[in-house]
Amino acid sequence: MTIHNNEIIRWLLPKPLNIDEIHDCSINYILQKVLSRRGLNLEEDLDDFLIPSMLVNPEDHFSELNKATHRIVDACNRGEKIAICGDYDADGITSTVLLVELLNKLGAIAIPFIPSRKEDGYGLNMKMIDEINNSEIRLIITVDNGISAFDAIKKSNEFNIDLIITDHHKIPDKNLNIYALIHPERCPINSPYKFLAGVGIAYMVAKNICKKLNYNIDSTTANELFCIGTVADMAPLLGANRKWLKECLPKIKSTENMGIKAIIQKLSIYNRDISAADIGYKIAPLINAVGRIGDPNLVIELLTSTSKSSIASLTKECFSINKERRRITSIIEQEALEIASTEYSNNRKFLVITKKEWHPGIIGIVAARIVDKFNLPTAVLSSAKCGIYRGSIRSNKQLKINIALEECKDILMTHGGHSEAAGFTIREENIPYLKEMLNNIALREFKKYSLQRFIKPDACIKLKDINMSFYRQLLLIGPFGIMNHAPIFWTRKCRILELHKLKDQHIKMLLQDDTGYIDAIKWNCLTEVQVNDIIDIAYNVEINTWKKEEKLQLNIIDIKRYHSTIDLIIHNRNYKCQLTDDMKIMVTNSKGEYLTSELLSHGKNSNIKKENFSRKILDFAEIALGQTV
Q1: For 10, 209, 279, 374, which has the most beta carbons within 10 A of its beta carbon?
Q2: C-alpha span between 393 and 205 (Å, rounded)
Q3: d(C-alpha 123, C-alpha 89), whole Å
Q4: In sequence order, which residues have a C-beta less than 8 Å from that of residue 340 and are 6 or more positions away?
C-alpha cells in the first residue's frame, strides 16, 4: 500500500526582510531573521524573549486562587487529608505527583486518585467520590480534569466535600457549584497564564502556596514535573509556559527525584541537558504508555518512591509496559491503515475507523499516525463496554475538531478536548451518523484550504555557518515546541558524500555544499538517493550524542533534487528563476519576458508600480536561489 498524500509538495519560503527590520544586537544574524519573520520586534522585544521578565501575581488573574490557596494552606496546617484527583496521561500524572509531594511536605496527608482508562474512563467520577468520602476526606483538588464531571460535582456537594477544580479543558455552559475554580479561561485575554496545561496550573497553585508559607518550591520535584507535563501535553510555549520552561529545563539533569533519575538513566540521556524533544519523544511516551495499557499508579509510585529496590522494579515494569504498548500499537496501526486506505480511496475527508477489539488506550496514538499518513482528520473508535464505543480524534491542523464534535453533540454521549486532539463516547448505532456528519463538516471546511502538505523554512544557511557557536545561540531562542517550533533551515546544492541505509527506511548521510560538510539523518526517507546526488534540503539543526561524544547533525525534514532553475509562484503566477553564468539573478515569466538583478525589465520601464513589483519578485528569487538568508 503506497499513499503519497503525506509527501511534502511545496516549500513556502519566507518573505524578504527590509534592512530596518534587523536590529544590531548580540544574537546571530540568521537567527535575527528567523525571529523577525515570526513577528518579533528585535529592538523592543528581543531581550524579554531571550530572558522573560517577571510574571504578574497570578492572584490578579485568577479570581478564586487566593480563596483556594488559603483553604489548602489551612488543610496543611491542620494535617488534613486531601484527595488529589488526576488523570492517566503524562499531564495528569505529573500534576498529581507535583501536588501530592508538595502538600505532604507541608503537613497535609495528600492521597492520589487516578481513574482507570479502561474501567472508569476520563476524569473525576462517582466511584471516586464514594471512595474519597469513605476515607473521610473533606477536600478534593482536581488536576487536569473535573470541569465536566457534573454528577461527581453534585455528589461531592451531597457529602459536604470542598471541591477545588484546576483544569484547562473548555468550561461548559453550566453553573458549577464548587468551592473554587482555577482555569485559564477565567484569566484576562492577554494573561501570560492563558496557555497553561494541567500541570502548569498545578505548578502555579503550588508556587502560590509556597509563597504564602515562605517555602522553597525548589525543595520539591515541582520544576521537573512542570517541564515533563507541559511538553507532554503540547502546551503552547508562550507566556508563563515559556518562562518557566526556560528556567526549569536545565534542572532536570540534576534532579533529586529517584524515579526521574532512573528514567533518564534508562533512556541514556543522563549527564547532559534534557531538551523539550527528549521529553516529547522519550520521557512522555513512557509515562503515557503506562496510563494507556497499564495502571497509572505505577508511575505515581515511581515518581514518589525513595526506595532503591522499588525504583528499580517499577522502572523495569514501566519500560516493559512501554515495549508492550509499541507491540500492540504496531498491530492496530496496520489494521487501521487498511481500513483508512479504503476510506481514503472513497474520497472521504474525515476518516472514521472502527474496530470493537482495539485497545482503547492505543487509539489516540493510531489516530495521530493515520493523520500523518493521509493528512486528514481521523477518529479511531473501539468498544468501551456493551454497546458503547470510545473514540479518539486527531486533526490535520486545518480543522478544529473540538468545534466539529460540538456540532455532533446530539448523537454523542460525552465529548471534550482541544482543537487538535479530542475524545468522545458514542452508542454503536450512532457511529454511521457520526461518520457522515464529520465527513460533511470536513467537506465544508476544506473548501477554504489546500490539503497539500507544505513546510515553511525560516532561513537559508550555508553549512560552514552551522557550528557550536551557532547552536548555542539557537538554544537561546528555545525551548521549542507548540507556538515556538524549532527553526527550519534550508541549504541548496548539497552533494551526498556518504550514504548509510539504516532500518525502517532511515538513512544517514555526510553532506557537502560549496562551504563545508556535515552529518545528516533522514527518518523514513521516501526519496531514492545515492552517493554523489546533488540535493536541496530542509532541516532542523540538532546535537547527536553517541558514546558520550556530541556532534552537530542535520535532522532532514525534506529532500528535493537540485535544479539550477526554480519555479517561483507569486500571486498564483509562475516564474522561473536562475543564476546566470556571471552570478546574476534572472527571472522569466510565462510570456518569456525576463528580469535580472541588473535590469528590472527587458527594455525601459517608467511604470513605478510595475517596477516595485519587479523588485519584489527579484527579492523572492534571491531567497529561493539561496543567495540570501
Answers
A1: 279
A2: 31
A3: 11
A4: 351, 353, 370, 373, 374, 378
All three cell numbers of 603: 527594455
How far is 615 from 96, CA to CA, in rounded Å?
A: 58
Q: What is the pLDDT of residues 110-167, one digit of tens each?
A: 999 998 877 777 789 999 999 999 999 999 999 999 998 999 999 999 999 999 999 9
> Nearest CA to 198 among 256, 141, 254, 271?
141
DSSP type of residue 481: B
In this predicted model, what pLDDT tens digit does every residue of 464-484 receive, in sequence order? 999 999 999 999 999 999 899
For the entire predicted model, the pTM comes to 0.91
What span, in angstroms and rounded, lies between the C-alpha atoms of 629 and 623? 7
Which residues, 6 or more positions from 25, have their beta carbon under 8 angstroms from its beta carbon? 32, 42, 46
Q: Which fold has domain 58-250?
A: inorganic pyrophosphatase (n-terminal core) (3.90.1640)
**Residue 507, SS3 per DSSP:** strand
**Alpha-carbon gap, residue 2 to 134, rounded angstroms:** 57
For the chain, the structural domain boundaries read 8-51+456-561, 58-250, 348-453, 566-624
Query: pLDDT tens-digit profile of 433-462?
Result: 999 999 999 999 998 777 788 899 999 999
H-only helix segments in 375-508: 401-407, 431-445, 468-476
Alpha helices in 358-467 (DSSP H): 363-374, 401-407, 431-445
DSSP letters, 175-209, are ---SSEEE-GGGS-TT-TTTT--HHHHHHHHHHHH
> What residues have CB less than 8 Å from 450, skipping those under 6 apart?
none
Instruction: Give 101's contacts (C-beta < 8 A, 6+ positions apart).
Output: 110, 220, 221, 222, 304
CATH topology for the 348-453 domain:
Diaminopimelate Epimerase; Chain A, domain 1 (3.10.310)
User: pLDDT (tens digit, 9 = 90+) per residue, 360-396?
Assistant: 999 999 999 999 999 999 999 999 888 899 999 999 8
SS3 content of the chain, % helix, strand, coil (to 5): 40, 20, 35
Tens of pLDDT, residue by residue over 30-84, are 999 999 999 998 888 999 999 999 999 999 999 999 999 999 999 999 999 999 9
What is the CATH number assigned to the segment(s) 8-51+456-561? 2.40.50.460
427: nearest Cα among 379, 383, 394, 367: 383
